[in-house]
């Protein structure tokens, strides 16, 4: 996240880490980062991933502009998933309603509670329904 913030990329932490911020911690095998899929932001995200040392031979800026892409770095339980879309939520709405939270010593943008609930409802998987119970 440090590299994304330094590149002034628009991103939101979503998934289990966001559930942990809004409710309580739960086990997960990855960190989900949702990036805005625009040309300008894709360039920023690509630069940030390069600075992070991510293997980019199979990821282009065009991929980061394309909704529905999931780019994975590493393996569970320390995997990072970079997402270009999120079910049931638009990036613009989620960005507007974002909240700040800590990841280590870094302030990071997280998806807001209501947008997270919309996403979890739209997904409807057993773990998402369990997350909805945690989120109240």
Automatic annotation (TrEMBL):
Query: What InterPro entries would the database entry show?
Result: NT_sf
Xref: Gene3D superfamilies: 3.30.460.40
Q: What is this protein called?
A: Nucleotidyltransferase family protein
* Source organism (scientific name): Eiseniibacteriota bacterium
